[in-house]
Amino acid sequence: MCGIVGYIGKREAEPILVEGLRRLEYRGYDSAGLATLTGNRLHLRKKAGRVSELGSFLQTSPAPGCIGISHTRWATHGPANDVNAHPHLAGTGNGQVAVVHNGVIENYLVLRRHLESEGVRFHSQTDTEVIAQLIACHMDGDLVEAVRKVLSLLKGTYGLAVVSPRNPDLIVGARLGSPLVVGIGDGEHYLASDPSALTGNTQKVAYLQDNQLCVLTSDEYHIFDAEKSRVSALVHSIDWTPGESDLNGFPHYMLKEIYEQPEAIENALRGRLSDADSSAHFGGLNLDVQQLRRAERIIFTACGTSYHAGMVGEYMFEEFARIPVEVEYASEFRYRNPPIDQNTIVIALTQSGETADTLAALRESKRKGHPVLSICNVVGSSIAREADGGVYLRAGPEIGVASTKAFTSQVTILALLALFFGRMRHLSSIQGARMIDELHAMPDLIRRTLRCQSEVQRIAEKYFHVDNMLYMGRQYLYPVALEGALKLKEISYIHAEGYPAAEMKHGPIALVDASTPSIFLVPRGSIFDKVMSNLEEVKARGGPVIAIASEGDAAVTDHVMSRADEVIVVPDVPEYLQPLVTVVPLQLLSYYIALLRGCDVDKPRNLAKSVTVE
Ligand code: AGP
Predict the structure, then answer these.
(1) Residues 325 and 410 both lie in one domain
(2) 8 falls in which pLDDT band (50, 70, 90)?
(3) Measuring CA to CA, which of 77, 153, 321, 542 is 20 to 30 A from 32?
(4) How far is the CA of 354 from the centre of ligand 1 (A)?
(5) Which atom of ligand 1 lies closest to the CA of 402?
(6) Which long-range contacts (CB under 8 A, 24 or more apart) does 447-454 make?
(7) End-of-domain residue from the set 417, 440, 463
(8) Residue that terminates a domain, selected from 415, 440, 465
């Protein structure tokens, strides 16, 4: 999940590379570095720590030149220190090469031992240095050819960029399994792991596909396939405006993105609801009506927060489309070999569109002939491109590592798809029209939900010191319990678990004591009384209870308030839309608890935004 930025053109490379790394830092941030060229001199600067540490270092030791490559690292081999930071150098004098790499070279040890047996001395513990040493060994004046030869020796995944004083007017890039885009400018070109790094420089990008290599000069770029034939690539226009990736006055990206949820949901709905036929419309499913009607089962495959969104989708599809659904962890699904009948549609859910496990699960499903759709936020990303069709979230860049607006946007798109499939089968136009009205109301209801911020801050101040937290929900809110627990875990490092509320009786209730708060999602609904019974069981054992309840019915709210220690009230919405309002206080609670614990909310330890390795 590292970040790569390259630049070649007429401007000084250093500031462009550092700003690009800053925008990619959510992809990995345990070390950062860059290499620039002036004529036949290579300037290497790299440091453990955040991009800001590299920036400070460059203040005293700038790297001149109008061509360069840079990298922000999420360690896969070797600890986060200066030596293991990228770029990695190899060779001497004019034959030197500098390499930055995202991915995992699975046969790096065999290659390293062979090189060492031939007298090559390594300086780092990384797999990437093997690539640099191999290229240096194959350099006979043509960097492109040397890179090509080395790629054929590698097993695993890579998105990489290479420069050398021997060819000081070009950058070579290559991709297999880790994303890489070419940024197209006027008299300048860029390389990046994802287009957000290029915000403010260009909005025109061409995505490399697997087994492609690119050669950039300041005036042109060429892309080649594995047979060395030049290929053309579709040029996408990234519709993110420069300001969208900035904080815009918020203290952290996570808080900004929590508050962007109403607008993100408006964008998800825009142009996709049809009053004329009381249904939803999508421009890019690319499946014919018969394929959609014939669907006898749907499999959602995803990771992390996207998996939790898929769990909400399971309840939606079963209620409104009457289609059996399974939700599969992509990391499991890619290696299982379940008997799946041909009338199964696989839907990959992903914010980044680059999650390695989800991409692999998609490819495995396509290999078996299933139509595959993606629900994704990043235009032109690998999963979006390789799916047969899909729906974009239109949520705008999600920078905070903890996913927030992507979750609520995915749930919104899933509600639209459930309406769409339902109206092809059993849903009446009246039911469809009602769902359309209910969906249209959600952005303002989430704006209203956000007013709970100060109440949530007070509760966070009361509980931020705990070591464990339990989250309980049922039906549509069981996935929200899991999602709330994940949010708390990943940014505050508090141990937290989500359970179906009734499951407490079968063991987990042994965890309940005065130091372990339980969060109950207990809005009004068909099983409100059942969940209240589960809440009582926890109270009876002395566990503090924080309840998320519905506003409106005083009797219900009073009942919850009489039993819970803390109550956060959210708008009363139909059960299938309760995930959209109940998740908001959980997102805010994890944010404020993490702040109170001094954690880095946007870049939690050990994590990265896009997990592009297995
Ligand atoms: C969410 O808060 C996590 N950062 C993580 O679980 C994430 O949802 C998961 O890695 C999947 O990412 P994707 O949606 O980009 O595929």
Answers:
(1) yes
(2) very high
(3) 153
(4) 10
(5) 2
(6) 447/262, 448/571, 449/570, 449/571, 449/581, 449/584, 449/585, 450/258, 450/259, 450/262, 450/584, 450/588, 452/568, 452/569, 452/570, 452/584, 452/585, 452/588, 453/588
(7) 440
(8) 440
Residue with tokens 């490559």: 69
pLDDT tens per residue, range 567-602: 999 999 999 999 999 999 999 999 999 999 999 999
| Cα of 304 from ligand 1 centre, angstroms | 5
Best substitution site from 196, 333, 379, 611 to test ligand 1's pocket, by max atoms within 8 Å of Cβ? Answer: 611
How many A from CA of 333 to the centre of ligand 1? 16
| Ligand 1 centre distance from Cα of residue 608 (Å) | 9
Instruction: Convert the pLDDT of each residue in 463-498 to its tens digit.
Output: 999 999 999 999 999 999 999 999 999 999 999 999
Q: Indicate which residue's Cα is closest to atom 10 of ligand 1.
A: 304
Q: Do 485 and 538 fall into the same domain?
A: yes
Above pLDDT 70, what percent of the chain? Answer: 98
Query: What 3-state DSSP class applies to 84?
Result: coil
Query: Do 512 and 415 lie in a common domain?
Result: no
* Two structure tokens written together for 71: 């990298």
302 and 286 together in one domain: yes
Task: Name the residue type at position 502.
Answer: A
- Looking at the DSSP bridge assignments, the partners of residue 470 are 497, 518
Active site residues: 2, 609
Q: Which residue has the tokens 């309002």?
A: 581
Is the separation of the CB atoms in 390 and 375 below 8 Å?
yes
Atom of ligand 1 nearest to the CA of 607: 4
For the chain, give the mean pLDDT.
Answer: 93
To test ligand 1's pocket by mutation, which of 351, 379, 405, 491 has the most ligand atoms within 8 angstroms of CB?
Answer: 351
Closest-CA residue, ligand 1 atom 7, reads 304
Query: Over 70: is that where the pLDDT of 28 sits?
Result: no
Which residues surround ligand 1 with Cβ inside 6 Å?
Answer: 303-306, 350-352, 355, 358, 401-403, 490, 610-611
pLDDT at 242 over 60: no
Which protein residue's CA is at the shortest distance from atom 4 of ligand 1? 402
- Give the model's pLDDT for residue 238: 81
Tell me the C-alpha distance between 308 and 331, whole Å.
Answer: 14
CA of 200 to the centre of ligand 1 (A): 26
Q: What pLDDT was estimated at residue 1? A: 61
Q: Cα–Cα distances in Å, from 253 out to 238, 268, 453, 489, 602?
A: 20, 20, 16, 18, 6
CA 418 to CA 312: how far, in whole Å?
11
* Domain span including residue 189: 3-239
Determine contact, residues 406/392, Cβ cutoff 8 Å.
no
Q: Are residues 230 and 252 in the same domain?
A: no
Question: Which residue did the predictor score with more confidence, 487 or 50?
Answer: 487
CATH of the domain at 539: 3.40.50.10490
CA–CA gap between residue 442 and residue 428 (Å, rounded): 22
User: Residue 195 above 90 pLDDT?
Assistant: no
Atom index in ligand 1 nearest the CA of residue 486 equals 2
How is residue 154 written in tokens?
A: 């590698």
| Interval between CA 42 and ligand 1 midpoint (Å) | 37
Written as one letter, the residue type at 545 is: V
